[in-house]
Design goal:
Number of helices: 2
Helix content: 40-55%
Strand order of the largest sheet: 1-2
Distance between the termini: 35 Å
Number of domains: 1
Order of helices and strands: EEHH
Strand content: under 5%
């Protein structure tokens, strides 16, 4: 059986980000994951976003729909930011919310 993430105390730390800033790829990101959200909830939301993106990419491929492709791109960026934020909390050993310096990339 899988590990119950709700009992780990792992929460978002606020470093995951997505959406290019006004100055482009090297600028501070437009959106950031808020610190303090429970890991189980965050992974559930990332799964929902990825499911929507999967449907949109299928639609984009079949209908050659650029709008659906861009929508999927942004949804995947959001899901990626959520998972990266949790991974950061795991790798740095921090389970408490913090307010780090802006992340780039």
């Amino acid at each position: 059986m899988g590990r119950d993430l709700g009992s780990t105390g792992l929460k978002t730390v606020g470093v995951g980000s997505f959406g290019e800033g006004e100055a482009g790829a090297g600028a501070e990101r437009l959106f950031r994951v808020a610190p303090g959200h429970n890991a189980a909830f965050v992974l559930e939301q990332a799964t929902v976003l990825m499911g929507c993106a999967q449907k949109l990419t299928l639609q984009a491929g079949i209908e050659q729909d650029g709008t659906s492709a861009w929508a999927a791109h942004y949804l995947v960026g959001m899901a990626k930011a959520l998972v990266e934020d949790l991974a950061h909390g795991i790798t740095d050993g921090s389970h408490a919310p913090q307010h780090p310096a802006p992340a780039f990339g």
